[in-house]
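Suppose a classmate hands you a notebook page containing two proteins, each written out with its sequence and a corresponding row of structure tokens. How would you begin to make sense of it? This section walks through that situation. The first entry is reproduced here exactly as it would appear on such a page.
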Amino acid sequence: MRRAPRPVGAGDLLTHLAERSADVLARVLGALGDVFEPGFDVVPLLLHLVPLVTQLCLQQMRAHAQLAAALQKDVVLLLGREDVDRSDPDLRKTPEADEQGPNRFARGLTMFKHASETADALGVELRWQLAIVDGASHSNAQMAQAAATFVE
């Protein structure tokens, strides 16, 4: 069950930022403790780090907002059920690509699954649709007729 998105006020934003900053700052301090000797004066260093950590947290929050907005757009992920030819010379066969699936059809399913999980994690509605075209492989002609049904 998806939870309904709630409005975020300035107070919530500041609280979230403080929580993120504290977490990142704690990690930085932990790393510094492993590097510097006891008694090293980290206060001057912290005065420089806190604004940087805050900036990184703001960037992360902006990235989450952009991702949430993308997941809420009307998108149709159109997959050909027969687009499974592993010997296709144009199919990328790197370890990174193969982690997503052995072929384009499997990779498309993986993409949709990750989009759904990410939307849930962000607490937003996924407005993407998954449409599978039976009998279609990696062919524009086979996919065009199905794609036309989604165009207004």
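The notebook's second entry, a different protein, reads as follows.
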Amino acid sequence: MSRGSAQPRTLYPTTRSVVNVVKMKTLRDSASSAAARRTTPSAPCALVVDDDRHIASLIEDALSAEGFQVTLAFDGMSALRRAREHDPDIVILDIGLPGLDGLEVCRAIRKDSSAAILFLTARTQEVDRVIGLELGADDYVSKPFSPREIVARVRAIMRRLKTPAPRAAQRRTIGDVSVDAERREVLVDGRAVRLKPREFDLLWLFARNEGRVFTRDQLIEAVWGYDWEGDRRTVDVHVRRIRRALNDGVGGRPGYLQTVHGLGYKMSGPK
């Protein structure tokens, strides 16, 4: 080959160039994956708490099949840790936990979270069920139960949390109590009052039907659903909690939520 002739160019990339191409592709793929994660709605998170690992596993499988991200805890303390770490949308919580029981766990979760709570109870734990509802639980299921029943209850609770209010007449004001269905906001004399999801649904039903008397069965069908099989006294528990939150009839304030003896309840403004 003559001195002036050009050297032939290689057709093969160098090792360094191959590495650089791979790095660039990896970075692009990572960026695309991150973007996809940011634009993909996250699955709802469920925390299942039961010291019976077999039961917890059955519930986990059933909820995972419905698209939930499920995390497990087998005692009260680990349940509180998981709740802080994962900020679940719903907690399926056994009342009869060893050590820190389900009622104490519910009380602690309610201080920092508005997650829905579904209690798992034994049929003999009627008093605990009422206390649990007082503490802010949304519903309960009695043992023994099937995974399908758990899924049905969870679906019903999640529907209530996500169902948008009707666009027409989304605000009601009765006396100094204002209920905004679109914002799910309650104001008492201009002060914000925090209610649990089902408490709000119950108050909104009363507010948009001012003066109408509802029986307990009508309230259960409208707020809990026609297929609900729990104790009818849960209505009394929720009404009591709403009254307490509104300071209803306390310190000279008018009592808006009124008991109609022998029938049920109604909401009326001051006369």
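A careful reader of the second entry would note: Residues 171-267 form a domain with the Arc Repressor Mutant, subunit A fold (CATH 1.10.10.10).
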